[in-house]
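[job 0412] stage=fold_complex status=start
inputs:
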Amino acid sequence: MDFRDSPEEAAFRERLRSWLAERAGTFPTSGDDYWRRQGEWHRALHAAGFFGLSWPRAYGGQELPPVYDVILDEELARAGAPPRPSLGYLVQGLGRHGSEELRRRFLPGMINGTERWCQGFSEPGAGSDLAALTTTATRDGDEYVVHGHKIWTSYSDVADWCLLLARTDPDAPRHQGISAFVVSMHQPGIEQRPLKMINGVTTEFGQVLFEGARVPADQMVGAPGEGWRLAMTVVGHEREPSTLGFSARYGKTVRTLAARVEGAPPAELAWAAVQTEMLRLHVRRRLSEQLDGVSHGPEGSLDKLLMTWVEQDVGHAALAMGGTRDPELLSTYLYSRAQSVMGGTSQIQKNIIASRILGLGA
Amino acid sequence: MDARLTTEQRELRAAAARLADELGPGSVLDLDDADRVARLEKAVAATGWRTLRSDGASGVEVALVAEEFARGLVDVPFAGPVLADDLRRDDTAEPWTVAVDGEAADARDARRVLVLQGRRILAGRAGHAVAGVDLTRRNAEVSGPFEPVGEVSAEHAERWRALALVVTCADLLGAARGAHTLACEYAKVREQYGNPIGSYQAVAHLLAEGLALIEGSISVLRHAAWAVDELTPAEAVHAARVAKLYCARAARTVCETSVQVHGGIGNTWECLAHVYLRRVLASTDLFPAGLEEIDLGLS
Ligand SMILES: Cc1cc2nc3c(=O)[nH]c(=O)nc-3n(C[C@H](O)[C@H](O)[C@H](O)COP(=O)(O)OP(=O)(O)OC[C@H]3O[C@@H](n4cnc5c(N)ncnc54)[C@H](O)[C@@H]3O)c2cc1C
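[job 0412] stage=fold_complex status=done
writing structure:
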């Protein structure tokens, strides 16, 4: 056991730090400005060799051990840079379920940031109960034709591609009739309807209407009916703070708040500092466990719950520091409320923990 | 960067768990079973774990034993003697413990008590037991005359404080795990409305939250225990304070959940849930940490 950097890790950190010293300040870190230039930030990070650290070289990754992501997140936060784009769960979905041909075609662009992606899972009638989804994909020669309504689709307005879940077999039991596709977002059969988020941001997520959108049959990911398994891979990884890279961002918020303290800090802020430090160390432990080949099971739900509590306590600290009078702090607080909904609500995470880890048969 | 336990550390943890499971109290009645306590005392003494520090063990190993002992409600001294050993680093047959705020902590059977005053170590005597919240460990009065028995470096004194916090954190985590397991087992067998109570979300979610709090505690404690010997003394104390604040809140919540999940029985003397809760309250008070001590810049 050693929580310190190994010599290789320290050298990597050093290189990253000096790169960030030049580049970090030039990118916005929040709000609509951040989202607008997020693609550019992604490409800059990747071009310098600081993105996709643990992914295969063949697809544009660096093939480093998973703990390097911790170093990346810590240094980004320390430098006041934007967080790393969180799309590890999509990489996992495509990487594990896609054919080698699909992986070669799509992973490099996803990883290097030249092609942008969104995740079309949720629908108005299918949120927590994702298997209730009704979007259909019907075979028509070499193509499938898609009809349906997706909602809460993050980054849909800038996406080039959508990893879409649709029903291909209406007669199969509901978990088995679903398939996954890579659908182009640039075509006439797609209509985008923006959504304004609770904090006023318009670039976070949107609604996407598929009205006869077409997708080549060879852009189905995995076999027909494998969509549910892919979905479980994706949401499993979407629950991990280590995949999302959020933990250092919370630390940064705490430090920013601490810099404004005059006199005794509010208890909410000190508690947020404790929580943030816990999450930092928790991510390190989880990533270390991956060295033993520990696979991603329902434990991700524990991590998601911890991450949610931390983000929402940081949000409360922002409020305690005068958040209602400061637009940025208020936005931090309001945005934190989404963490217990996105990627599976806290109630759903607790259901998973109770039934699959504790064996409570809930 | 590697937060994993070594094979030896896993083996030590398993050995401590076995001992606690075999000889720790399985019920509130067992607390009064003098034969069992005597056998437990003999077994713990034979392991030599009370002198882990003078045998060169790290904070991580000490924490692992403390955690498993608390999980099994081991009701013979460990924290007190191990902290005394860290100060004295010499192995004598006499049972030692340490004093905090004028009281000998974890002092069952202890005859001699060490007091750390700045860097000076004074030795006094343990007297009558003091009434306390904990049913598994007891404190005692301390009486003089106090004789100086040595001095530690400023650095050692600071690391000792970190170790003391870490040992109490490990105790909190272990007690939380024990209380949580107790509640999960009960939730699987107790039926109401024709179903096990654990099948109701309101109960299941409390227990799910408890497990997340335990996982968070493991992570923050692991680092603090490592830091005792590996970071600067000031960093070690800070890491330990962070861990203490987190583990104390988490453990109390988990124990309260355990009481709640047990219903009426949970509010009786006969249910072990309150024995865990009491141990958690005692370990929170022993070497306490306050939010106002947290350095907001360090995290
Ligand atoms: C910021 C943000 C970004 C998102 N990004 C995406 C994206 O990119 N792609 C995508 O596909 N989706 C995305 N989502 C959607 C998200 O996954 C869903 O909102 C979420 O799964 C909940 O579904 P729902 O909104 O339909 O709520 P519902 O499922 O209707 O839930 C409403 C309430 O009921 C509770 N509830 C529901 N079922 C149960 C149950 N069985 N037991 C106990 N309680 C229950 C929930 O916990 C919740 O509190 C995003 C959401 C947010 C907020």
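[job 0412] summary: The pocket of flavin-adenine dinucleotide is lined by residues A 118-119, 121-122, 127-128, 152-154, 204-205, 338, 341-345, 347-348, 351 (CB under 6 Å).
[job 0412] exit 0
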